[in-house]
From TrEMBL:
Keywords: Oxidoreductase. This is Pyridoxamine 5'-phosphate oxidase. Pfam families: PNPOx_N. It comes from the Bacteria.
Length: 159
């Protein structure tokens, strides 16, 4: 826990609690880096599975193009409130997931978490939905930060 950003009564948040937040979070903000060095931020859905966050995107979308030149990303989630909730920042490297057995498990996880509108078939190393193709990326954390509110705290985890 970083005492500079935490109240005296704050305690470090266990990683298991952070994982529970990641599993429940519906919306994440993905930050990638454009080829010219400018940041790009966009909201998206993600699932936590096998000790990593997973998200999908069309291969021609800006975030996929950015990842082709720089795989380092930040995913953030939390509550847009000042005095309650918990915010998380996960840093890592986005790796294209092509293993179809893993992709089938991830497709099932998306549908279980987000409902039948988020049903994906798996074909040719990617998700398929209504004729569109989405590539899937895995982000295993290299570092993560948790920000408690109410009693303000900042916890850092390194992997």
């Amino acid at each position: 826990m970083d005492g500079r950003y935490s109240e005296e009564t704050a305690t470090a948040t266990p990683w298991s609690d952070a994982v529970a937040w990641l599993e429940r979070a519906e919306l994440f903000w993905l930050t990638t880096v454009r080829p010219d060095g400018r940041p790009h931020v966009t909201p998206l859905l993600a699932v936590w599975q096998d000790n990593a966050l997973h998200f999908c995107t069309g291969p021609a979308e800006r975030k996929a193009k950015n990842l082709a030149t720089n795989p380092h990303v930040v995913l953030t989630t939390g509550q847009n409130t000042l005095r309650e909730g918990f915010d998380l920042v996960v840093e890592g490297k986005a790796v294209w997931e092509r293993d179809e057995a893993r992709l089938r498990r991830l497709a099932a996880a998306y549908e279980a978490k987000y409902g039948p509108d988020w049903h994906f078939d798996v074909r040719d190393g990617a998700f398929q939905h209504d004729g569109d193709r989405a590539v899937v990326f895995r982000v295993a954390p290299t570092a993560a930060f948790g920000f408690g509110k109410g009693v303000y705290s900042q916890t850092r985890w390194l992997f």
